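Hi P.,

Sorry for the delay on this. The queue was packed all week, but I finally got your sequence through. Input first:
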Amino acid sequence: MDRFHELEVFVAVTEAGSFAKAGARLRLSPPAVTRAVSALEERLGARVFNRTTRSVTITDVGRRFLESARRVLSDLETAEKEAIGETATPQGHLTITASVTFGRSALSPVVCGFLSRYPRVTASVLLLDRVVNLVEEGVDVAVRIGHLPDSGLIAKRIGAVRRVLVASPDYIARRGMPASPAELRLHSVIAFTGLMPNREWRFLNGQKQGSVSLGPIFEINDAAAAIQAAEEGHGVTVALSYMVSDQVRRGKLVPILDAFALPPQPVHLVYPQARLVAPKVRAFIDFAAPRLKASLDQLTWTSAEDAKSGTSPTLR
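Then the structure:
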């Protein structure tokens, strides 16, 4: 049996979650799907699925094999298109993911501009406040904020952001400006759980990193809602600099304890490693990287003074 066919069936069963659905997608009968999976397992000498009458679950062996199988199929598709001259023009469907707030503030207009430039490409944008497994979830490109772990992804740095504490001028007038991290315990804290999962704020005092445990009056898993609560004078919240740059420059929010902020966190565009990168992915990276970098330069600052003055020097 054709090995590429076995890989195609294996990936389809993994994505569909059942032999029957995979067969319908590939226009194969259930016995044909079973034969392809059995042939793959016999050649590997291990099971790739645990099967019962009610469910199909991928094994550890299958999970390890999945990324390689997808890469082989992708390379084959790209090679075939290259052979007939299709790779010169970006085309097909592109799936991109980013955090909710970054997607709203910076990514969406860039994607719209890209689609205008390349009319043969369509796109889906997934705004999620979690780390997406690009290979398993079929995502082409992701925006990642923070230091990257070792992985099989290719990364292109497009800028940096800072974690900042902010509160409204009205709140500061009523409760005072904290002079040290320890004084945050005396204040009302609004916790966006994505940046304060353990109810603590990490800071830098000289060359030494520390943390202060806090008791939030309000916890929420949406950054925009936490920022709005801070704007309304309900307390202090933590955000990434690009999330609150407009509010700070308009005087709606004030940076707090900026001298104790941690170093900037890098922002990258990442995509799965492949021998031949799909033209749509390569074109999007080339189009989006300088535009997202420009947006980040405008949406962040290196000090409270820069925030107030509206300057936006590039972070390094």
